Amino acid sequence: MRNSIFVNLLLVILFGGCATVRPPDLSRISGSHRVNANYDTAITTASPFRNFNKGLFKAAMRIKNKDLSGLLLIKKMDTLYDSTGIRAVQERTYRIVFANEIGLTFFDLGVSAGGFTVFQCFESLNRKALLNILKTDFRLLLRLYPDDPASIYVQEGTGRQVIMIGTKHSKVWETRNQQGDTLLVVSGKSTVADAVTIGYRGYRSGVPGAISIENPVIGLQINLRRISE
Amino acid sequence: MNKIFFGVVCILLLQSMQAQTVRMEAPAIESLRSHVKEVADNTQTLISDFIQVKEMNMLKENLVSKGKFYFKKEKSLRWEYLTPYSYIIVIHDDRIAIRDEEKVNRFDLKSNKVFIEINRVILGSIRGTLLYDEVNFKPTFFQSRDAYRVDLQTLNPKLRESLPGIIISFNKSDYSVTRVEMMEAGNDRTVITFSNKKTNQPVGDEKFDIR
Predict the structure, then answer these.
(1) Residues of A in contact with B59 (CB under 8 A)
(2) Spatial separation of the C-alpha atoms in residues B91 and A26, rounded to whole Å
(3) What total number of domains does chain B contain?
(4) ipTM of the complex
(5) What is the distance in angstroms between the Cα of A76 and the nearest Cα belonging to chain B?
(6) A29/chain B closest Cα distance in angstroms
(7) I need a surface site. Which of A225, B16, B133, B194 has the fewest CB within 10 A?
């Protein structure tokens, strides 16, 4: 029994460790620490949720071959409240509520760059490991990480601009179009288990119409399709 | 001026009398239970429109969905959502099929604990049979002029974390379920109101076989 757990753990670490989030075929632009003239413009124009207040998405979540579906609401909040309703932190904060079609809440989370609050979570999803992964996923999705420091690359073949943003605990790779003004993919990981790739498509009014979030190590996939503002 | 004041007072009093809800006594509770059971036993099919409002208090947001609902005994359900987007959920023979535009996803209800629990609660609420589930719910009975209301306090600790209570309202004239309120943690709630109900009308099996 103990051996089996050890082998499983080893496999997760081995395969998890191999889960690369760095886009392939990159050439660094020489001396590229914020040298690209378009970089500052790109940072502001290519942040899909920067001027976003709220959006309703049709959501499908698959975790370990279990399917959940419903509506996912993302709303920008002025203030993050803790679970007792007391004001906790004042920073760019989003509430993310995922409810099934019948209306029952699967999870209700508060996410900011420095905070994470679980307001509600269905019992069978209320696992620390899963919630930590969702925290990383939504922080990357909403671009809740620092802009600096950054290195800029060009992806050979596609000509896409790729920006690597190194944070204290993790690295985030942003793949943008050739002009650098539209965010196409964000990938990153802070631990072995939370490697994630997020794809943005079908922009409308600066907000993506379709989003795919993939966590290959734990087999979590979330697909979102925006249905209203 | 006095007439207007008198009129307003009369309207308020009338509304207050209509809305007055009192706790039911044991004989009335037994009568309600037996009528609800009788209706559930005799309902072979049910077709109804529904409006579903998910109220999120802290977010100050309501999510409103509308659609058509079909039930066929023993436990076949079809939720046909028309707004905010077209979507069909069918639960039949312990299997769930979800049609989202042209794509149909099917899975075994038994493989998904979340769905097993939700389906049991929803089916029991709509049929009124959750009144008898005293292992998982403690009922308190009320009545107003037009409706019976049963407040179900969730006893099952795991379910209580997500769903502390359910309020089911029954039509006083035919004992059918008119409204289901699912109270959630954090004072959020989902209210499903049924209208244009038709019982024991033919409902073809194809309604529960989406392709």
Answers:
(1) 73, 75, 95, 97
(2) 49
(3) 1
(4) 0.73
(5) 10
(6) 44
(7) B16
